[in-house]
Amino acid sequence: AGRNASERAADRAQGMSVGREEAHTDDGGEFFSQLAAHWKKNYAGWTAWMLTPDLKLPGKMRLKESRRVPMWNGPIECRMFRFDMVKGSVRAPRGGDDTAPRKTPPPAHGG
């Protein structure tokens, strides 16, 4: 507050972050991974849709899409991916998980 636009622009030109998080990447490869982590941390319970020609995008984001809708953006084949955001991971732990409910056969009825 109290700073004029030219002072804020000078700060940005010097590389200072002004009240916003920045995605620091050398190339665009890490951007989607950082975006997915941000969504999972801050938007659990929300739904996100993304239109992309990159059919491998969910894997790059380390997210599992709940819907995959084929679409065309002009001559470009794309997919509209739906992601249901959950905090953390939905993967089951590897190995023996004794806390997981198990299906058991119904008891045998004696005659």
Mean pLDDT over the residues:
76
Count every helix, treating DSSP H or I runs of 4 or more residues as helices: 3
Rg calculated over all Cα atoms: 23 Å
- Give the strand line-up of the largest sheet: 1-3-2
The SSE order reads HHEHEE
How would you name the oligomeric state of the polypeptide chains in this document?
single chain
Give the tally of β-strands.
Answer: 3
- Approximate helicity band: 10-25%
List low-pLDDT spans. none
What structural class do you assign from the helix and strand content?
alpha+beta
Shape: extended
Give the DSSP E fraction (strand runs of 2 or more residues).
Answer: 15-25%
How many angstroms does the end-to-end distance come to?
Answer: 83 Å
- What profile does the largest beta sheet have? 3 strands, antiparallel
Protein name: Putative RNA methylase
Biased composition (Basic and acidic residues): 1-11
Region (Disordered): 1-25, 89-111
Keywords: Methyltransferase, Transferase
